[in-house]
Amino acid sequence: MATRIEKDPLGEKPVPVDALYGIQTLRAVENFPISGLRPLPAFVDAMVWIKRAAAETHSETGRLEPRLARAIIQAADEVLAGKHREQFVVDVYQAGAGTSHNMNVNEVLANRANELLGGQRGTYTPVHPNDHVNMAQSTNDTIPTAMRLATLATLPHLLAAMDRLAGALLGKGREFDHIVKSGRTHLQDATPIRLGQEFTAYGHTVARHREKLVQAADWLRELNIGGTAVGTGINAETAYPALMVKHLEAVSGLDLREGEDRIQLMQSMGDIATFSGALRAYVLDLAKIANDIRLLASGPRTGLAEILLPAVQPGSSIMPGKVNPSIAEMVNQVCFQALGLDTTVAMAAEAGQLELNVMMPVITHNVVFALIIVANASRVFADRCISGIEADAAQCAYWLERSPALVTALAPKIGYAEAAKLAKEALATGLTVRELVTRKQLLDGRELDEVLDLRAMTELGVPGGKGIPAGG
Questions:
Q1: CATH superfamily of the domain spanning 402-467
Q2: Model confidence over 352-364: pLDDT tens digits?
Q3: Which of 28, 59, 192, 366 could form a disulfide with 457 if both were Cys (CB 3.0 to 4.6 A apart)?
């Protein structure tokens, strides 16, 4: 392989002649052959946005020669358009703080800018990775800023997927509102509920988590760019932070603001940990919804079988005709992975020391990756599972009719103790609650119909409550 010789403070190394990256990136590749995972596109985009905004800022203040700024901006635009992506080669698990990723971006943009100006790769003239592309920046303020930008840029995909999932669940809530079924608590028979009420509640759960994620994301809009090495802003002009926010908003389309305390934003990963925690809370409920869907669809003969899931693939290589809740099972697995990612974020956020948290590369990767997989899982769950669910109204009625929990509606009339005896007798004899009450002539026909009005049991109030004393 043809190479070129490059130098850095540690010496010389041969770099592939066609590489846009340089010697510092190559050292990182050699030092960290860990996972084979390269930076997520959103993390690359975020860093390139920062370099582009910095070139614009320094051109505006007169600190950077306009022709050099234009070359850096053009190189950045090429990357943002999808070119040169194979040049970002540093493993996800790398040196602390993200210096390797920062220099990978600096070198790629510097080499491409020099080419655009008629120079050669590896010469770093007239554009230098540190002196020009990284001007007035430090890894310690660019990586925290990139973390926030990458997260904010990825979040809309999840929010759209959550809207889709909430809409699908609420749609099923309306479709199934007429179906009364047995509620279950502790996995035991409980008082009636409408199938539509269950699905509506799932939809509201997703919608509430969407609101919480948007609220948690607002903290991420505050940037510490301009803090440079330790947050104090050494080597950055007074106008730099505000101009950077302006140009970053323009290139990213995000709503951003200048941080009030850049030292605090560099020291603490609390904002990103809070956001990851909000995502974790959604994931916990998403997993619970997937579990419920699997339970409600269990069967078709020996489970609950109250709903029918769309058949998306054969369920067994040995049992013909078996259909599994494949989509819900996928969702559960994604949720488990996302919970592990959040645990990593929490541990890494705690590991900061003094003026810097050096664990930012793994924090960024885990948060952005979690957003990606949870968004995809939510969308697929909505489209390939929830939207195609059908209800088995007859099966719902079958289980409800046999539920001993219906005696709950009788308790205001005959007392808790007598109702408990009826429930026990129903289980022992196999008779329904209605059959027992009729045999024992505890209530006349009209009163019994009013008390055991199954639909009425799913609403606030006392079924057949006309005869209940005031305050009783």
A1: Fumarase/aspartase (C-terminal domain) (1.10.40.30)
A2: 999 999 999 999 9
A3: 192
Secondary-structure breakdown of the chain: helix, strand, coil percentages, each rounded to the nearest 5: 60, 5, 30
Rounded to whole angstroms, the Cα distance separating 331 from 374 reads 8
Angle among Cα 141, 142, 145 to the nearest 5 degrees reads 85
Distance (Å) of CA 361 to CA 129, 130, 193? 20, 20, 48
- The sign of the CA dihedral 186, 187, 190, 196 is positive
> Among the options 316, 317, 378, 403, which is catalytic?
316
pTM: 0.94
Could you give the 3-state DSSP secondary structure of residue 217? helix
Q: How many CB atoms lie within 10 A of CB 79?
A: 24
Q: What is the pLDDT of residue 466?
A: 60
pLDDT tens track for 390-437: 999 999 999 999 999 888 888 898 899 988 998 899 899 998 988 888
Query: What CA–CA distance (Å, rounded) separates 301 from 303?
Result: 6
CATH architecture for the domain at 3-135: Orthogonal Bundle (1.10)
The CATH number of 147-224+261-394 is: 1.20.200.10
